[in-house]
């Protein structure tokens, strides 16, 4: 299993307030212990945004994001992976959208996902438009690799 999953230790309903002890499993037998002290960490004031039904920023609880390893072209594999991530406690899932074939499968992924999906777009602004039309909860793109301002404006509009 190449992706990181919280072990059963986390499934008991730990909170991100105060100390969080979390054990992550890498594959079948490697683990690490991880602690977060959210009270000691400096958090800047930000505006709250919603990614689907998950609040981010503005003092919202810390959310867990992960990214799929499967291609969106493999709809069944992607849906299975998204479901496993959600069961492991992931709040938001990001998927790469490298080409038109991947973008065309997004509506089915959105429809079958129990968590908000983020489309990760590079270089082709038209893929961002297709992803938005598919109903993803968020677009992740770097305006610097999308091209000129007209292309970025086309995505924003």
> What's the total helix number?
5
- Physical arrangement of strands within the biggest beta sheet: 6-7-8-9
Which class of secondary structure composition applies to the elements?
A: alpha/beta
Query: What would the principal axes of the Cα set say about the shape?
Result: flat
Distance from first to last alpha carbon: 40 Å
Overall mean confidence score, pLDDT: 78
- The percent of residues in helical segments reads 25-40%
Number of beta-strand segments: 9
Tell me the strand percentage band: 25-35%
Order of helices and strands: EEEEEEHEHEHEHH
List the helices and strands and how they pair.
Elements: E1 5-6, E2 19-26, E3 30-37, E4 49-51, E5 54-56, E6 65-67, H1 75-87, E7 92-96, H2 100-111, E8 117-121, H3 125-134, E9 138-141, H4 143-146, H5 149-156
Parallel strand pairs: 6-7, 7-8, 8-9
Antiparallel strand pairs: 1-2, 2-3, 4-5
Please provide a written account of the structure.
The chain is of the alpha/beta class. The protein is 30% helix and 26% strand. The chain contains 5 helices and 9 strands; from the N terminus they run E-E-E-E-E-E-H-E-H-E-H-E-H-H. The strands form 3 sheets. Strands 6-7-8-9 form a 4-stranded parallel β-sheet. A 3-stranded antiparallel β-sheet has the order 1-2-3, with no helix packed on it. Strands 4-5 form a two-stranded antiparallel sheet. Helix 2 (100-111) runs parallel beside helix 3 (125-134) and helix 3 (125-134) runs parallel beside helix 5 (149-156). The protein starts with a strand and ends with a helix.
């Amino acid at each position: 299993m190449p992706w990181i999953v919280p072990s059963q230790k986390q499934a008991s309903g730990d909170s991100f307030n105060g100390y969080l002890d979390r054990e992550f499993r890498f594959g079948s037998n490697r683990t690490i212990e991880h602690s977060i002290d959210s009270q000691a960490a400096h958090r800047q004031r930000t505006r709250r945004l919603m990614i689907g039904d998950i609040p981010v920023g503005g003092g919202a609880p810390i959310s867990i994001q992960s990214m799929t390893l499967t291609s969106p072209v493999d709809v069944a594999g992607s849906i299975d992976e998204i479901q496993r991530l959600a069961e492991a406690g992931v709040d938001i899932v990001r998927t790469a959208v490298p080409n038109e074939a991947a973008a065309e499968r997004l509506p089915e992924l959105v429809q079958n996902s129990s968590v908000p999906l983020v489309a990760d777009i590079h270089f082709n602004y038209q893929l961002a438009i297709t992803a938005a039309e598919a109903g993803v909860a968020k677009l992740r793109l770097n305006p610097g690799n999308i091209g000129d301002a007209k292309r970025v404006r086309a995505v924003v509009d």
